[in-house]
From TrEMBL:
Reactions catalysed, as given in the entry: a (3R)-hydroxyacyl-[ACP] + NADP(+) = a 3-oxoacyl-[ACP] + NADPH + H(+)
Enzyme class: oxidoreductase
Span of domain Ketoreductase: 4-183
Species for this entry: Sulfidibacter corallicola
Keywords: Fatty acid biosynthesis, Fatty acid metabolism, Lipid biosynthesis, Lipid metabolism, NADP, Oxidoreductase
Gene, per the UniProt record: fabG
Domain of life: Bacteria
EC numbers for this chain: 1.1.1.100
Active site per database record: 152 (proton acceptor)
Protein name as it appears in the record: 3-oxoacyl-[acyl-carrier-protein] reductase
Binding site for NADP(+): 87, 152-156
Pathway(s) served: Lipid metabolism; fatty acid biosynthesis
Similarity remark: Belongs to the short-chain dehydrogenases/reductases (SDR) family.
Amino acid sequence: MSSKVALVTGGSQGIGSAICRHLAQAGFKVLVASRSAQKIEAVADNLKAEGFEAEPLVLDVQAIDGFKETVQKICAEFGGLHVLVNNAGITADNLMLRIKPDAFDSVIQTNLRGAFFLSQAVLKPMMKQKWGRIINITSVVGLMGNAGQTNYAASKAGLVGMTKSLAREVGSRGITVNAVAPGYVDTEMTHDLSDEVKASFLTQVPLGRMGNPEDVAHAVSFLASEGAGYVTGQVLTVDGGLYM
């Protein structure tokens, strides 16, 4: 995989950072993307210090007008773009009666709209290569729902539909499109939950523990590999059995 390039959005922390590490360990040159220049530089520097190939890439997934130019620059500098992991995501939780338009729009724009148009931007180089992997990080919430997260669930359910539709469009071009749906994972997003809420969640998980970012990264690494060449249009849940 030494000649292949992977772009990971939301790569500055949590699941995204773990995905960057696993793809780098698999031999990809990893572009660590996020709005936070300082954080992605730290992730990339740590990987390079360990002998892996990684570069920071400042990218705002809401700024869709710059996607085409960004992809062109990546292909010119690194010789192609082979894997896209749409991991960037935010929450703005509240009961539906209390969700303001701005809270709805920001979640949809980051989690779904950004992933849609960045996927669109990478299709041309992937079709030219006749090889590509698009991996969308959705959520079990997008499959099963969750009170207080209607906007987030809508964005993640949208990713599932997008994944399956795009997989049908580009399969003949050697491009696979899949999704990974994490369950209750120990990340910055879950740190603010109370102990009571965490305990309540765990009663619904057959494996009886929280997941960790590496659990998700292993699944992404598989879907990015040659070994997953006959897997497309799938949603792989990594949730300890929460949704089954």
